[in-house]
């Protein structure tokens, strides 16, 4: 998305807030006039919900609709609460069916029902068609507004059809080809149509095999396919190969961006924020992090219990406690690296649950190699400053912990994917807790064996 520079954005936001406090609405309108939609969106994302509604009301009608479409569903929902019913109804009617569904998912049922009832019969039907697909499916994110041509049409007739639908269609650059039963049989680009002889060529002579995806398919997987194939639009069909919608590349990239944000948040041990950071209330940020911190704090009690079990071992050789942060930190970092790599590989389809045997073996070898390097360094340093026997304990522990952590880190995302859970949830926070406890057990067992404690 195009945006203003950081300094211009800060200045515009600051002046907007000052004008709002002074009730200088004419000055604020003049300030907003030269801005384009992406720039206005960047400013709105930094305002409070009340100020956002005031600024939005000052925008010209066409710009207001474009700005509303560019906001995330959570911000749209907040803006709806600050606008009058008539304003909301007009904006809602001008949204595409897929954008309407995203907004409806954020609104209370009573508000959603009222907005749907205010639509024309045709718009209500197209929106209901998208709403009928399960949450998380690409059918819920596709647009039913497309221009399809029949295989037996001449190029001239097909071009006339595209021109007649150019204002309503989501895109005209990708033109699906269907048969008399509306089954998808091919696809062509607008360039193909415009380059052909209008009166002497038929659509079936120009079309090529289509790329399509089932409407019930996972939205992220469909968006990933659209991006991987570098398509301007991916066609969406039902179980009978009937064309039901289209996924444009901008919508695909938005889906992937949302999925990436969610994965990164959960890998870090929090829930994703559903709106820009500066427009998210502090209590919502606290709520997104608190549950995970409580879960991890409970998990950390395993580490405390392990230390209690080996308290006698530590008391016999206090120096062992010095290396605990090093060992559990190294194990956690190694496991996190492996989990992040495999989670990303799963998202890109480089790895699938069918690789359940290959991935742990590769990660075990990787962890062992890392453990040999780190263990050798640990042995040398511990032997130099303490004792060769202590160095042997540290070196062997690093070798064992790195091997275990990498193996578990590679295995957990695959296990999550197998049971249809989010791989990111099983990654860094839980792996760190698991490796901390098991790493300490390994450490003290090796210490007892090598030092005869």
TrEMBL record:
Pfam families recorded: CBS (PF00571), MgtE (PF01769), MgtE_N (PF03448)
Gene3D superfamilies assigned: CBS-domain, MgtE N-terminal domain-like, SLC41 divalent cation transporters, integral membrane domain
Principal localisation: membrane
Bilayer topology term: Multi-pass membrane protein
Membrane spanning stretches: 290-310, 364-386, 392-414, 426-446
Keywords, comma-separated and alphabetical: CBS domain, Cell membrane, Magnesium, Membrane, Metal-binding, Transmembrane, Transmembrane helix, Transport
Record CDD domains: CBS_pair_Mg_transporter
A GO cellular-component term linked to this record: plasma membrane
The keyword Membrane is assigned to this record: yes
Compartments reported by the entry: Cell membrane; Membrane
Subunit text: Homodimer.
Primary role: Acts as a magnesium transporter.
Protein name stated in the entry: Magnesium transporter MgtE
